[in-house]
Amino acid sequence: MLTDAQLHVWEADRPDRPWAREHRPQLPEPFTIERAVALLDANGVERAVLVPPLVSGFNNDTANAYALEGATAYPDRFAVMGRFDPRPSDAPERLRHWLEQPGMRGVRFSLEGPPAPQLIEEGALDWFWPEAERLGVAVYFLRPGRPEDIAAVAARHPDLRIACNHLALGRARSPAALAEHVDRLAALVPCQNVAITISSLWGSSEAGYPYADLHDSIRRIYDLFGASRLAWATDYTAARGRLGDAVTYPMLRDFVRIALPDLSDAERNDIFHGTISRLLDW
What we know:
By secondary structure, this protein is of the alpha/beta class.
């Protein structure tokens, strides 16, 4: 079985579910549930974790509605890691009931620079981490260039299940920058509650598919974490938005297999399905 650990879906802008105007969609046309199903079918992928993109906003009532509709319509194919705003006064109560939403498996935080909310800097997440740990709410944690911040949270909350999204890659994207970044990513090795999603690496290659100039770094990441802590994710719409027709879904799947040709069947199953399924209890 194949499970894509990150796929964005969004609908057209509408009055009752308005786009967040400070963000732009990754593609000119909405990437709908129907398009997602067709994409997975065409490529032999059974399941995907849906992540509402930034353009969906951060409203706890509307940001996740479309992805949840997809998970309800296709419960065996989709799970959702939803946007969650910890700042409203009712946020703790919402979190207590978060996983009661059909298809919801946890929370996704994009903790990057403006215009995204600066939740760590504001202290808005101080209450969230221990409560999510207590409630068993998994977290997709995007913190570009700062894997040590993820390590600090994971160390303080060892029972909090975390996925370090996109390897916490920073703005510098090149083979040399990735090699240097792997040294910093090693801060997460002691944190057994953290998995790493292998995604967005296409932006670091100067050689094009199959990104041979990144293979040494990919192998180092495998050596650091092992297959049981790595999860494949395409982030397909982001890749298409940046590279257009120069990238395809099979490329975003197969470069990992090419970089790691000696995986056992069990290791391959972990990277392409098992790791993320365990993390999300899905």
